[in-house]
Specification:
- The protein is α+β, with helices and mostly antiparallel strands.
- It is 18% helix and 45% strand.
- The strands form 2 sheets. The protein has an 18-stranded mixed β-sheet that branches.
- A hairpin with a 5-residue loop joins strand 16 and strand 17.
């Protein structure tokens, strides 16, 4: 007897980062909100994340977004984000991909021109603005999480690297921000492995020295992200372009610059007094893809001036497929899957 199950996927990418959107095959999860359903997966059913990000089905550089019913009447759908580092409550590139997937799958019917709707992330409601032209989703703008600077230009001793100056921003996760030129990088594709090795050492050193606490969320775990900042180029009034690279611990260099990495940069620029409402930052990746972050305002949260922002990019559909899970396969761990699969069945082998 073979224990088989099928999961429906739509593979997409934004800026080169592949997001696997799970559109079917998973049962109803416990929890009254998307956040509570994410916590259930994280604490009791991590098998889906591991299945789709590890061999033989995937690689750690991918992300997974599970579509779930929204708990909020204003949202068309909810989504739970899964990455190699765990379960971030928000991600810009994953939001761009999920928004595109709900349009391309027909969950939200496409409308020509500018189309607006809301999704529910574990972090809460996210405003989406999609531009549709001749039935094609040409761009998506998503509301970023309120972002702020926690630490400005601190120094840490890192083995093999010496004294490293870094800032820390929160933009959906805590980010170490470092100057690429100070570390000897030009942020070109041939440096990818060296960038990952450098970032690994810095993040390990920061994690060993200290933790970080969000002003409302409290302890959200060890710092998982590092963002290499390249030189800034003024393209036009209120428009800056900068080469950028985002690292996810342990060991992953993102293909895109990431939406949260771009938001973290905006938080730093605002902290340094270099932004006005409407200013834009285009971040450019090792693969020459880019996202555009727009500074839309600020508000005060206790001691922190919090930056309001959006991220604009484009997502492309790569494939629609059914993943067949065979629990008799020794490379497939079904132990944390049985209680969330919606239609598991048996067939004679």
């Amino acid at each position: 007897m073979k224990n088989l199950h099928t999961i429906q996927l739509m593979d997409t990418h934004a800026g080169g980062d592949v997001s696997r959107i799970v559109t079917g095959g998973i049962g109803v999860l416990p929890g009254a909100t998307v956040r509570q359903q994410m916590e259930f997966l994280r604490d009791d059913a991590d098998g889906l994340r591991r299945l789709l990000l590890e061999e033989p089905y995937g690689i750690p550089e991918m992300s997974v977004d599970l579509l779930v019913p929204s708990s909020h009447p204003d949202a068309v759908a909810g989504y739970i984000i899964m990455e190699v580092m765990g379960y971030p409550i928000y991600s810009g590139s994953n939001t761009l991909c999920t928004a595109t997937a709900v349009l391309e799958s027909g969950l939200v019917p496409k409308q020509e021109g500018i189309q607006r709707f809301k999704l529910e992330a574990p972090a809460g409601l996210v405003q989406i603005e999609a531009k549709v032209c001749n039935g094609v989703v040409e761009s998506v703008t998503c509301e970023g999480l309120p972002s702020y600077i926690d630490t400005y230009r601190d120094t840490i001793q890192v083995p093999e690297l010496g004294a490293i100056t870094y800032s820390v921003a929160y933009s959906g996760g805590f980010y170490a921000l470092v100057d690429a030129e100070e570390l000897g990088f030009k942020l070109v594709r041939s440096e990818e492995q060296a960038l990952a090795a450098c970032a690994y050492k810095i993040v390990e050193a920061i994690q060993a020295q200290r933790g970080f606490s969000h002003y409302t969320l409290g302890d959200v775990g060890p710092l998982p992200f590092l963002h290499f900042m390249g030189p800034e180029e003024k393209v036009a009034e209120g428009y800056i372009r900068s080469r950028s690279t985002t690292y996810v611990h342990p060991g992953v260099i993102c293909r895109s610059t990431t939406g949260t990495g771009t938001s973290a940069r905006l938080a730093l620029m605002n902290y340094e007094g270099r932004l006005r409402i409407g200013d834009k930052l285009e971040t450019v990746s090792l693969r020459e893809t880019g996202f555009i972050g727009t500074f839309t305002g600020t508000h005060q949260e206790g001691a922190y001036q919090v930056v309001e922002n959006t991220t604009t990019g484009r997502s492309y559909v790569l494939a629609e497929s059914n993943i067949v899970i065979n629990c008799d396969d020794p490379m497939v761990a079904c132990g944390e899957l049985h209680h969330i699969l919606s239609d598991r069945h048996t067939e004679e082998g």
